[in-house]
Amino acid sequence: MDRRHFIAVSTATAAAAASGQIPSGGAYAADGVDLTTAAGATPDELRLWYSRPASEWLEALPIGNGRLGAMVFGGTDTERLQLNEDTVWAGGPYDPANPQGLANLPEIRRMVFAGEWADAQALIDATFMGNPKSELQYQTVGNLRLNFATQGEVSSYRRELDLDSAVTSVRYTQGGVTYRRETLASHPDQVIAMRLTADAPGAISFTATFDSPQKVTSSSPDRITIAIEGTGQTRSGVTGQVRFRALTRAHAEGGTVSSENGQLTITGADSVTLLVSIGTSYTDFRNPTGDHVARATDPLNAVSDVPFGKLRQRHVADYRSLFHRVELDLGSTDAAKLPTDERVKNFASTSDPQLITLHYQFGRYLLIACSRAGTQPANLQGIWNELLSPPWLCRYTININTEMNYWPAPITNLLECWEPIFDMLADLSVSGAKTAEVQYGARGWVAHHNVDGWRGTAPCDRAFYGTWPTGGAWLATSIWDHYLFTGDKEALRKRYPVLRGAVQFFIDTLVTDPSNGHLVTCPSMSPEHGHHPGVSVCAGPTMDNQILRDLFDGFVNASELLGEDRGMRDETRTVREKLPPMKIGAQGQLQEWQEDWDATAVDLHHRHISHLYGLHPSNQITKRKTPELFAAARTTMEQRGDAGTGWSLAWKINFWARLEEGARSYKLLGDLLTPERTAPNLFDLHPPFQIDGNFGATSGITEWLLQSHAAELHLLPALPPSLPNGQVRGLLARGGFEVDLAWSEGALQGGELRSRTGVRAVVRSATELKVTANGEPVQVHHPEPGLTAFDTVVGKTYRLSPS
């Protein structure tokens, strides 16, 4: 089917449709308790809840507004809010490009082509890695701790995170008084707010203080406010330059509030609202000199006189405008009545389809909470990190993990949450241009396997892991994919120079493989897998060629649509044709490298299955267009097995969905939903915590229900037999379609398709469909069994029913 079916004809209407979503609202009781839930949901269905406080970080509940994050512990004697701000990075602006690299590049390439991989890798380690070799860490701000004056036995305890409102709450009885706390991170007001209430007057007394593993100073700026101020650490020889200031202000009804020497004291209050604001000096990756004091103070002053109920209402309305776009119902059993941590422990031995729904919507919640327009992208832990030296530095690992973070953005109707990736791409096109010039003598820009807050783009860590020039190219493929989902021609035009620069780098740096005449990347590797003991460096690995085909195709399509760069477009087509083809090895598997090394590779069950990029997220391997490659991809999946880290299992869920084997995909989700891979608070465990597994699982569940990568909308392509009945509303597909589906006994019952761009719809289903609009039949065409094609009109809704 021609990809042109998915080229939009009305950018303005598509953008308008994307922004106009479900109305938000809700009734609020006097104490701010939300009285509404998402349509069709019972009060507990969209809640993570627990019968005791969090005793460790992976039991605490995350809140966030894209920029500010907190982990809420819900204690009774003490409360802890572990705080993050998404620009608190160690170090400061630096240029890691290694000037030794270019002079040694010819010898490195000679060694690779001669099969002297260990020597090539050693020379890369000595002369081609960035300076410093290690990038910089994302770091915590610290903690806000409340110490309560109440003592005695606690009863009727409940702690929860309501995904429908993005509010955490704690409720318990102590000393005959029932206490309640609600905490939220407001995007419209850019503060974290906590409301403390009790059912007895004058019952609330506590102290509040900041602490931090950073070197900070504490103060009391006024009689109701406390502050800490510090600077991100010096690491890898780069001086810490991000200054930060955190403020907490208390407003009490009844009782007294005082602040002295960095401690708030609240005595005998009826209710209290705490407001937390954090500002940093980070302006962009080149400028850490902003006014962190004003950035902390201004949001706090702006809301100091706003009642908590109003703050909450604005927060919920803003959040629901995104969250309510998609609803999923997979059914429920009595297992859903248990606390969330018990459900995870029991999932393998019980029927609990609603936990899948909860986990799915938790993934969408997390993306809304850690990635909003104007913020930093979601890093390896989103925005939630309690350490100064977190695992893998909490960077943007762009050989799979950052990309996986954003797989749910378009398909689960969160296009706005995708925006930080495009902002980062604009940054990388600047910092990566220096690396391209200094280390490769090339035009355009490049980024390797990791990026940090300072947009380091040189190879980093060790040559075994870092010799991979295709990370930026993978990210850049999202520019054309965004257009396929939205038809937004102006966004494409704005981002086109970034796409062009990514292509230009490879036009300049691809070299001829003397063994076969193909144009290849060299040096490179197949992330993060060794093909012989101790060595990964190679030329033209399968994944590179797949990524470059997508990159080149996106550029060619964009340049044609925008009427730009005809000469470069023709050159790109020519270069694309010279890339090595995908190959099937002696075992019937898809080869990971140009040579058939798969059987003797270092780890036959390696967590990275990079060469199946062509199956997912790409569309170069499909069941109907490339059946031989499709069968080879399946063989590879069987060989690799079902074990893996959290994110690796999540990718396998997507792979098996693309292979249209819902039962196998479901089995892997079950492997993920175990205490070994899912923390009590539903965070994915690598281990330890890594957020891409959450996002990858949400993507994989969506792939069970709707796929649009093959120039058609495939309905229920991988529906697991364990989920025979259900419905979903609001999924997005390429071509600018929004889709609702219902199924029963494993078969499609019907659906609706709303057209945002007015392109022709091509729909695949188990049976042919009849289509109506406004109750009237729509003329359809059946180009082959199972396919239904029809023209659409912008803004119109089409009812799909099995014939």
TrEMBL record:
Domain (Glycosyl hydrolase family 95 catalytic): residue spans on this chain: 309-705
GO BP: carbohydrate metabolic process
Domain Glycosyl hydrolase family 95 N-terminal: 48-283
Signal peptide start-end: none
UniProt GO molecular function: alpha-L-fucosidase activity
Keyword entries, A-Z: Hydrolase
Top-rank lineage group of the source organism: Bacteria
PROSITE patterns per the UniProt record, alphabetical: TAT (PS51318)
Protein name (Swiss-Prot/TrEMBL): Glycoside hydrolase family 95 protein
Lineage summary: Bacteria, Bacillati, Actinomycetota, Actinomycetes, Kitasatosporales
